[in-house]
Each structure stands twice: as structure tokens, then as C-alpha cells.
Amino acid sequence: MKNIVEVDLENHDIYQHKVWGDTDMISSVVNRERSKFGDEVIGEVFLASTHRDGKSIFKDGRDFDSVIASDPHVFGAAITPKKAFPLLLKILSAREELSIQTHYKNKIEAWITLSEGEIFYGLTPRGEEAVSTQEKKESFHELLKVTSDKEELAQYFNHIHFQPGQAFIVHAGMLHALLRGTVLEPQKNCNLTLRGGDWGRNLPNRPLDKEDFFNSLYPFATPGEPIEKLYKMKSENAHHACIFATQDFALDEIVLNDGSRTIETFEDRFFIAMVMEGEVTLSSSDEEEVFSKGQVFVMCATPNQWTFSGTGRVLLTYVPNLVDGIIEPLFDNGYDYKEIATIGGPVIKENDIYIEMKEKGLL
User: Which of 216, 246, 269 is where one domain is finished?
Assistant: First the structure.
């Protein structure tokens, strides 16, 4: 039974038309010919999804839902009792500004940047003041509803110009907008967005959600710095870093320079891997496959040891056990608990790693 299952990126249903999309960047990241998309403006790719907006399928033709129902070794005990896939993994690429938005309280997402670009990320002190009373919220809403002036809004939000490889966690209620650039976006399996402003586009299929937007909003200023990666292993020829982690998902990075790195899968832990650069060989005691840039595959939830080798860069998305998958490996590699908490994001009361370590008396 195969324990590596490749996702079919030729499946056109996973590519989503968006008015703000950057088709050239999408085709580059997934390593597909630009002509595949014709004149379409593509802004999103659903890499691993059971969501109706873009259902993923494997190269053998099965979709994720049918695999969950018939082949439990693929995703294992990470699947909920209701047989729901826990993750939604997407690429977003924007040449124009996305809406200014928040998410409901049960939604969390994160970004790792794949290009240079810019974002709004959380409120500044001026933004906190703008939502401090009902009267000020009304004025702020009127501004968000009509303005297309990015510099006018930048006083209210942390305006970050990012470079490739930077990471941000967007906690529930945090106001944010991708303004330009390309990101890989792991998130809890939910695609609901609450728009507070849409740059005056006033498109009927993109309504604003004034009441829910402000009800969900985290109304305090937040830091605007990217998360610093922490290393589980680092050598001259290979490194394995944790980029960020929540109780719902984590993202690791393996970079090889003619080196190797061995990791384990378990009955409750599968990995969704995407090769971002180069060519890597993935091998276990009885399987071996070679993957190159743009390929996405699932390392199944069966107890196994897997070795990545070659020269390339791989991003791994998974549902973590915070203690044995995140906290202990980083502590064993020399980080103290306060440093480890930083990869859980800037909002302490929403930071799952901080909360887990507080609960266990480590902080």
C-alpha cells in the first residue's frame, strides 16, 4: 500500500478566478505553463481542500472526502469524528489589493510569503482608537467603504512590506489584507471572510459585512513583525525549521543543499508537502519517489520514517501535537520556552503554544 499520494495540480477546478489575481505568479509557483490558464485571472489555488470552493483530488482520481471514507490510513487519526478534513491549504497571489477583512472567532490562518509584496496586518494604536466606540466605528466603516487610498488607510493598520520567506499568523478577528504578492496560506478548514472594505469596488458578488465584521474584530493594536523561524535541526547541508504553529495547523520548512533530513509520520500525523525549489528524493525502507518544484503530495498517517535528500526546499503542513511535535523538539535544540512561544503568533490570548505551556507550568 502506497504511503505517498500525489495531489493532481492539473485539476482545473482548484484554480479560482479573482479580480485581484496574478496568473503569472500562480503558474510559476505551481510550475505549470502559463498557457494552461488562457485569459483567466487566477488568484487562488486550493492545494489540499474538501471545501466546495475548490475540491482537491489525487492523481489516482479520488477526492479527499472519498479517501477519508474508504482509506483511513492516508489521513489517520487526525480526521475528526465527523469525518471532516481539518485543513485548507491554498496559494494566494495578488497584483491588486484584496478586501480588508477579518474572520469569525473559530477561524485562524497564516501566511508564509513566496515573493516580495505588502500586507495590512493588525491595528496600529490609531486603528485601535478608530474602533474604540460605536460612533468611531461608524466613521471608520464609512472610510473603509469608499476609500481606495492605501496610504490613507496605512495609519490604521500595520503596513508591512515583506520579502520571500517571512511568516505571519492571522488570529481570529485580526484585521488584515493582502495588498500585493504571493503567499502560501494554511488555515483551519473554513473559507468564510468578513469584508469591512473593498477599495470602493462595490461589486455585487463581494458585499461588505459591517455588523459581523465589527462583531468579530479584535479591537486592540497588535505587533506588526513577522515570526522568526526556529530550527529543529540545522547543519551545513540541511536544516529543518518550524515556521509557525497553532493547535489547528503547523508549517515546517526543510532546506537541503546536497543533504538529508529524516522525519516520522504517525497514526495521528500526516504531512502535506510541497516542493518549492529544486528536486528532492523522499524514501522510506520500502518506498522511494523523486519530486520537483510545484509537486504536492501527502505523506500518509502510518508509522514510518522518511528521509528527504537532494537539493531543494520543501514546506510541510500538518496538524501538530504541540508538545511532542513542536515544543519538545525546539527545547531539545536549545530554545527556551519564551522563544518557543513566539512561533504561536502575536496575540497572546490566542497563542496556542503559549497557552499550552502556561497550562503545563512551563511559563
Answer: 216
